[in-house]
Amino acid sequence: MYNAGKxxxxxxxxxxxxxxxxxxxxxxxxxxxQPELPKDKTKCIESKEYMRAxxxxxxxxxxxxxxxxxxxxYVAKDGEKHFVSLQKTCMKCHNxxxxxxxSCHNFVVTxxxxxxxxxxxxxxxxxx
Amino acid sequence: xxxxxxxxxxxxxxTLIGTAASAAVGGVYTKPQEALKGxxxxxxxxxxxxxxxxxxxxxxxxxxxxxxxxxxxxxxxKKEIKWIWEExxxxxxxxxxxxxxxxxxxxxxxxxxxxxxxxxxxxVRVCPTKATFKREDGIVMMDYHRCIGCRxxxxxxxxxxxxxxxxDPRPFIAKVNPEYPSRMKGVVEKCTLCYxxxxxxxxxxxxxxxxxxxxxxxxLKNPNDExxxxxxxxxxxxxxxxxxxYPSVFYLIG
Lengths: 128, 254
Ligand code: SF4
Ligand code: SF4
Description:
The structure holds 2 protein chains of 2 kinds.
Chain A: H1 4-18, H2 20-24, H3 48-68, E1 73-75, E2 81-83, H4 86-93, H5 98-107, H6 121-127
Antiparallel strand pairs in A: 1-2
Chain B: H1 5-24, E1 28-30, E2 41-46, H2 47-57, H3 60-68, E3 84-88, H4 89-92, E4 110-114, H5 122-126, E5 132-134, E6 140-142, H6 152-156, E7 163-164, E8 188-189, H7 195-198, H8 205-209, E9 215-219, H9 226-233, E10 236-237, E11 249-252
Parallel strand pairs in B: 2-11
Antiparallel strand pairs in B: 2-9, 3-4, 5-6, 7-8, 10-11
The structure holds iron/sulfur cluster (2 copies).
The site of one iron/sulfur cluster has 11 residues of chain B, from helix 8.
């Protein structure tokens, strides 16, 4: 190969450059989100797996059912009834949006605009 | 071990079925048992009582409604947001001016104005996203999630019952109610007849707050409801009846 030495060095530099984020995070585990769960509660309205996979779908259903269908009660799989409300139900247990919702949402760079209108408990506290 | 095309497809199919099944296992939705039941909610505002008590009541209805629903107090009149407010008779009913001598006693009388939850609401007809719509119980709802801020509804409402958020309202909310959302810049808002309280079996906040009990809430379609008795006994007027929007807010003037 013509100029083999230079080409190989160039390739190595290029690889290093594109993997910078990997090197910078090497050995850092705290980058993986650890959402803080409510301290005094052991179960959510549905199973942990379901909530992990479908909380966004559930919340979307909630807003449609409450506002558009006038149905304000959610009967969970286990038969328990919950009042359909982000602020009156979800945030009563998950009372720290920063440590619960934001920790994952920031990690995956997803910024739902719920909080432009809905009021997180810590925001309400600062307000008073 | 190389995976065969056939196996891969099978796996893919299984995952799809799994996803569909687990997405469908969510719960079901119902109406709360304690919710008030009605087919056409309406308000009757006793203008006589309201006037008598106006000096001492401190407009409790407005205060309670606005603080409960995080309605901002924006001093700039052009950007103001209001759900329920007070207006003089001659401004609320300009068409009655022709009958000046007949209506003289009503002049300078305070009238509480709010969304009329019309039976035939023009605001609903023009909304391109169906963000505003009429519920089966007569409440004209606002779904802020869907409002795109085009303000067609404001142009269509003959009562000026809607307000547009020109700026972020949050800095203008002195005391927040953490159980109710605020709105954001770019959406239209108005009174929703306390649909969230009706779901919990409570009457609208303005009705509950009025110290003179000048506002009556009830179901027009229920013949036994107090509101129907009152409407039979008293003289009631509605705003701009000639437009055939059929308002659900009645003003008892005699
Ligand atoms: S008063 Fe205006 S906003 Fe309310 S329902 Fe009638 S037209 Fe719509
Ligand atoms: S009915 Fe509810 S939302 Fe409407 S003006 Fe009265 S308190 Fe406000």
